[in-house]
Amino acid sequence: MKILPCLAVTQAVFASTSAYACSCRDVPRTIEQHVDQSDVIFLGRAVGVHRVVIWSEGFETYHSTRFLIREALKGIDSDAATDAPQYVYVRHPGGDPAACGVSFDNGVEYRIFANLYKDKIYTSLCSFSTNAADPDNAPWEDYRRAAGMADALAKEQP
Known about the structure:
The protein is α+β, with helices and mostly antiparallel strands. It is built from 5 helices and 7 strands.
């Protein structure tokens, strides 16, 4: 089972009062690497942003955001995402980038790249989830191809 690339760093940050910088390992250089290193990939809108700590186990403390999935590429049943509304909760360190944290704004669509840990979905700064409207994003179609979603891409072509 994969652990987020910076999970150990994140734990160290929350376990100590000392200041640490987020350090991402195995940074994906290509779309294929990004897809390979992620257990879960989807396009979804944040619909339940929790700005307070809602989960704690030992020294691991996370925030949680609920997403309405528009399209799942990996790790979530894509048929369920297209037939009926499907929601997932994604755990993540709070918004402080120094702690590998991310924050999500309610109503905004994101590209989520995440990993599974103890059957829960986690993302962090090191997973490189982004606002879907970010002009620096590679085309979503490229991620579809890399994830083997050629059928979904073909359905959209006239």
